[in-house]
Design goal:
mainly alpha; 2 helices; 0% strand
Length: 48
């Protein structure tokens, strides 16, 4: 939980860093999943 929560606020990861993410059986256990999704959106490359 702690690692996932910190990733939700991952300011240390530059924008547009990843082509894709694979999320499997994960979002249902994160309390602040909206923050995690915002971070994923920020660090995904355009059209990622």
């Amino acid at each position: 939980m702690q690692t996932a929560k910190r990733f939700g606020y991952a300011n240390y990861i530059p924008d547009n860093s990843f082509d894709t993410f694979i999320l499997t059986k994960m979002l249902h256990i994160i309390y602040e999943y909206q923050e995690v999704l915002k971070t994923y959106s920020r660090i995904l490359k355009p059209r990622g």
